[in-house]
Amino acid sequence: MSPPDLSAAVDAILAARAELARLDETLRAAGAPEAAHGAPARDPQAAQAAQAAQGKAGAETAASSRPSRAKRARAGIHSPGPAGARGGGAEIPAFLPAPAKPPAPRPPKPAAPARDPLFANGVEITFGPDADVTYAERTTEITERQAELLAVLAPAMPLPVGRDFIAGKLWASPPTHADVMLGEIASSLKAALPGIGLQLKTVRGVGIALQPLEG
Known about the structure:
alpha+beta; three-stranded antiparallel beta sheet
C-alpha cells in the first residue's frame, strides 16, 4: 500500500472512533439507564449509526488495501469476472507463453531418375525393381544388382571383363569383401541365363565373360 492510501485508511478509522466517542457522550448526557452488566445502555438508532460508521471505515480501509485496476494491469494480472461470466475465474498472468509450433515436415527426397534400357550385342537390359534381360526374343527376370553386372559384361560380349573393373562399376567405393560379393551375384545370375540362350563363364586370372550358350 502506498503512503497516501495508508494515510487515508488511518484517517477513516480515527474518524469512526471519534464518532463512537461522541455518541457515547451524548447518551451519558441524556441519562440513559445502565445495562444489565453495568454498561450504559445505548439507543438502538444511535447504535445502528455507530455500526454503520464503523462499517464504512472498514470498507474504505479494505478498498484502499486493494491495488487499483491500473496497478493490476501493470502487474500483468487480469481481474476475475463474475461467476459464470465469460472470461471469469481465478486471476491468471496476462502474458502466457505461446504454444510451441510443431516442426515443419521435411520434403520427401526426390526419386532417383530411372535408368534407360541398355542394348548391346543383341542383349537388352532394363533396370530398377522390375529388371529383366532379353536375348533372342526370350526374356527372364533378374535382380537390380544382376542387371548392373550384365550392363558391364554385355558391351564386351563375348570377351571377359576384369573383376576389379567390374567392382569399380558396381560400387563407388568397393567394400573389403567385394570379390566375394561379386562371386555371389555372378553365381545367381549364371543360373538365370541359360533359359534365354546366354551363359556366364569365369576366366581364371582374367575375369568374367558373358557369352551365347553353346549348342
